[in-house]
Amino acid sequence: MPAMQRSEASVVSSPPEPAVDNASVREQLDRILSSPLFRNSKRYPSLLRYVVEQALDGHGSDLKERTLGIEVFGRSPDYDTNVDPVVRISAAEIRKRIAQYYHEAGHESEVRIDLPLGSYVPEFRLAVERLAPEKTAVPAVPTLMPAPVPAAVPEAQPAVLAAPSPVPPAAVTDLRKVIGFVLLSAILTGGLVWLKPWVRPTALDEFWAPMLNRGAILLCIGRNHDSEGRPHGVALTDAITLARLTGVLSAKGQSWTIRAEDQATFGDLRQGPAVLIGAFNDSWNLRLANSMRFTLHQSGPVDWIEDPQNPASRAWSITVPQPGGPRLSKDFALITRVIDPNTDRIMVAVGGLWGYGTLAAGEFLSDPKYMEAFGRQAQPGWQKKNLQIVLSTEVIMANSGPPRVVASYSW
């Protein structure tokens, strides 16, 4: 709860907050974990209970990401926290659910348990009395669609895994529906483009040229997963992007197949070229991006694309929208085309920090005018080199704007 505001004329500092006894904290922890926000999960209650008990026992200094991955999630001592960000993702989701719990009516006077941003050490404090009683109970603010944290249904992954869409924001929950939608879109888009053959190769042709005539292209789409790792849907923004890209490939006479990210194996990726659609919901994209110049990162509610030449910059970042909070006004996306050193096959990875970025990236890779503008200012020889492009897009009235190139690198 925010501290009470002092009078403008007052110069007396506020007294320190009273300490909370351990028994009260444990009682409050049980109340939180028995709420619908936590009781249908195993992952989030385990992490929250562990950090609270460790802090109460005086071991707060031991609460580090690697330690939590080992002790709570059973990871090996040498596991890569960048490849497997289970602790960061879980902590971010716990923060959101705690905030939603205290926002609901009836919890205002309870002991506060918070997990501050940038830390895994919880904080405990007594509720602060309000200056005036509320006239009415304030109901919970409806969550953004698709909701990052449904309050009374089994848990979903963090909001970054289910990005909202400018079209009706329901998730496509059946992969077969996605494939049917893609096939129809590919036929229509491919037919329209095929009736308008190019006089000369465009920058869009040159981007896709290294992928063509090397066998069927595997299109690997990310899926949403619950806390137990079970797939439960495809983000509509990813499905739309998939449809756009299959339309381009069909127009070029290229064969392709579709597979969900969780069903694609390393052996599948070694068979030929692949297109990875999704960012934080596609483990193959995260694995690929972590070895590149521009990389994808998450910390608490902040997602960003990092440039190692300026690692402290958060110019390409977003703050994941919170229930009842402000909506995004801008999003960013990362496009990578590279010969993967692990599979020795060429891959294209397309993903936004949020759904709007993914939509913008799909538009960028399917509309010749955007690639043509990029080709005029890109480094010479980019057509046959490994390539990364960072895009930005304005978000206006829940719609993504035109994609804009903010950085690129080829080698």
Residue ranges: pLDDT <50 for 5 or more in a row? 1-16, 129-171, 191-198
Q: What is the overall pLDDT average?
A: 78
Structural class of the secondary elements?
A: alpha+beta
Roughly what fraction of the amino acids lie in strands? 15-25%
Tally of domains: 2
Rg measurement, Å: 24 Å
What is the chain-wise order of helices and strands?
HHHHHEEHHEEEHEHEHEEEEEHHEEE
Shape: elongated
The biggest sheet, with number of strands, parallel, antiparallel or mixed sense and barrel status, is: 8 strands, mixed
Helical amount: 25-40%
The number of E-state strands comes to 15
Distance between the termini: 51 Å
Q: With helices defined by DSSP (H or I, 4 residues minimum), what is the helix count?
A: 12
Structural features, described:
Mean pLDDT is 78; it is low at 1-16, 129-171 and 191-198. The protein starts with 21 loop residues before the first helix and ends with a strand. α3 packs across α5. The chain has 2 domains: 22-138, no CATH class; 175-410, no CATH class. It has helices spanning 22-33, 36-39, 43-56, 65-71, 86-103, 175-194, 203-208, 236-251, 266-269, 283-289, 355-364, 368-377; strands at 112-114, 123-125, 217-221, 224-225, 231-233, 256-260, 274-277, 295-299, 302-306, 317-319, 330-340, 345-352, 387-396, 399-400, 404-410. β1 and β2 form a beta hairpin. It is α+β, with helices and mostly antiparallel strands and 411 residues long. The longest helix has 20 residues, at 175-194.
